Input
Amino acid sequence: MYVCLCHGFTDSQVRDVVATGCTSVSDVYRRLGDLPQCRKCVPEVCALVRQGRLDCPDAVWMEAAE
Ligand code: FES
Output
């Protein structure tokens, strides 16, 4: 399902980049496009990042070590 219509990325793409180490919303936008434009998708991206952190113990560990 499309999450961001301005940049044309999907929830699956967000989950993929979170699983490969994106631990913040701004990281996701850098990897998948650019800065948010209309920002309507930011809450959904934020929720996906939070969920990805919970699903990936390594990402939580990496964040704690920073
Ligand atoms: S829908 Fe994502 S920036 Fe507009």
User: Anything to note?
Assistant: The longest strand covers residues 2-4. Residues 2-65 form a domain with the Arc Repressor Mutant, subunit A fold (CATH 1.10.10.1100). The chain has one domain: 2-65. The chain has a mean pLDDT of 84.
